[in-house]
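Protein in question kept underneath.
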Amino acid sequence: MAKEFPDAEMRVGLASRLLAAVWFACTACIPIVYFFGVYERAFWSNPNSLFDSSTLFIVLPIILAAFFGFTIGSKILDEKGITPGLAALLGALVAIASYWGMMIGFALVSTSNAAKGWPNPLEVVGLVLVFGLFGMVAVGWVVVLAGAVSGWLLFLWTSSDLAPSIAWVTKDDARRLNYAAGAALFVALALCLLPWLTRR
């Protein structure tokens, strides 16, 4: 990879952001496999339960990891000022944001099912904290560890001779890419969660 960088106001472009999104979406599969491997009796013994929970426990974390990889993890590809430690920190931030997004989605579904309607905001906040704290013991630490290692490995790869070339865009274009990613995330979350939130 060339070590010559564009102007400081330039940001990582679409192709590189998509690479980071796919990278962290694949990383999300590690804690998912761990989760189902450790708690297989609760899911594999009942195929219908696995099907019902696949959106929440498989699709949702992958979507969130891809989004935060696109917006946060892609900064690893901008080598200006990025160190291995900072890359690991950014990877951990992608994982933490994805984890808490997952907890919010799980809390929304849980409170909606209990109330047979749209969830109460205070109940959602309470469940997010409860699920989040218990989840950290069960699987959250794997999520953070996988994210940190993944960020570090992405940095090593992009620092090697085998790394792909980095696309660059202006600061304003980068902001528009983030807005577009946010809109895509909103649509994806609506498709994932609305069937749960609206069923009676």
User: Anything to note?
Assistant: Residues 11-198 form one domain.
